[in-house]
Amino acid sequence: MTLIKSSERLNLHWLTHDDLLGVVQTATRSAEKQLQQFAQSPDFCGKMILAFGTSPAGLQGTWANGVVILPTIEIRSSSEINGANGAFAGATNTIYLAQEFLIANVNNLDAVVGVLLEEYGHFVDYSINKTDSPGDEGAIFSALVQGKSLDNETLQALKAEDDHAIIVIDGQAIQVERQDLNTSDNSIATARNIGVLNNIQTFLDSVDNAD
Q1: CA–CA dist 115, 46 (Å, integer)
Q2: Span 90-114, mean pLDDT?
Q3: CA–CA separation, 201 and 188 (whole Å)
Q4: Which residues are CB-neighbours of 180 under 8 A, at least 6 positions away?
Q5: 87 strand-pairing partners
Q6: What is the pTM of this model?
Q7: Which of 104, 148, 162, 178 shows the greatest Cβ crowding within 10 Å of its Cβ?
């Protein structure tokens, strides 16, 4: 994982860049720990199939051993990702997190971890599937990793998600799928790139080497 700041000037109010980077780094460590615990659960394969339609051989052992390959994580303004809290772009192999979301949740690690896991789920989907999994697989994956229950109505609603939009990152237009999920504790808005799969060989190699 490479953690970098936005290229544009961020309005951080009373926070510093280092404060936000610290929040993301702490959330990343928590997400990695949760992924390790998730991989050690007996129903890992079934939950992976529920989210992605497949459970690649080797991935469970990789995560269970604490090896988690992350893409670049970059802090951007919410406006750059169409008001979303987080986004994943396959074309840039980058997870984008909104500075406004991080500022609002600087003391709410669970919220940041949830969005980070969701965008990591989008990265995983791009890495293991040739075509996009139905619905918002990232939200499903995030909930399952965190041990949250998804009733059938919620699950079917997530699998039926099909909201597309265009975001512009550094002047480059990227086609995205955007999803808004209202929960009891916070409102999660995410976006993901549905364009070109790119820069995932390290992740695939880590899975193959675990066999």
Answers
A1: 22
A2: 91
A3: 29
A4: 163, 187, 188, 189
A5: 96, 191
A6: 0.83
A7: 178
